[in-house]
């Protein structure tokens, strides 16, 4: 090495002799050679750490209900089963999205707090549950999307007579890189709130489905991107939501995006064919209320196996941050 380039000023004063010694000695100076790891740093294709994973609701619901016996919402603060990507651990459902299933039982309160992290929720089952967001009490019904924006006080409760379950989507993985997420508890269990049925933090399902159904007779597929007043294009600056309709017997085009997704089946039956960037193919069978994770840059198509009617999918995506960083790419294959 250095022997063959003795003309480099300073190299001659180096006490390093062998290559092995070079690599050992520079480590003590808190430096490392880029040339041995360059390919890993700049790989030929995206390389998410997360893998395809699915959480069928019929497997999860019984344990979620058991958690209702083991711990109260008050004790737990948030009674949630995190959806853990098997190749990563919590809080990762995908590399950039955290998701969990939350349970509130009649009369319970998940106490008021606020945090830097943004949350959106998709209501899975139950009725007469509510989330109070910064003084607005929003009743929750199946299919609603409810936002709790960054640093907004929020608590959950239920005036219903059965379990209330929803899917939480948060941008928690982001704070592994930007360690600025923190929380504050409100001095009382509930933040004072008034019933509100027209909030910028609530998106009922019916108008979303009506939009997806607009060209139902002629189009086998439709996609709807949720949009907020505040962030115009997306529900937040980090993560957002989308809904899709797949017609009976139809298979959608194969598409890949530099975006990861946590899918939740609102209604219907079918499967998704997902090829991750490393070439591994997975077929995720799904039906109503199931959830599955899709790593970024996976080629994906959905198939609805029903004889009639459409399947409806909701998904949390990380498109806002990917787009705002200028990293959004999409390909149809
Ligand atoms: C949180 O505040 C909620 O407010 C749900 O319902 C899940 C996961 C991690 C950190 C905060 C909620 C959460 C969370």
UniProtKB/TrEMBL annotation:
GO terms for molecular function: dioxygenase activity. It comes from Triangularia setosa. InterPro entries: Cupin_2, GDO-like, RmlC-like_jellyroll, RmlC_Cupin_sf. Signal peptide: none annotated. The keyword Chaperone does not apply. Pfam families: Cupin_2. Keywords: Dioxygenase, Oxidoreductase. This is Gentisate 1,2-dioxygenase. Residues 101-168 form the Cupin type-2 domain. The keyword Oxidoreductase applies.
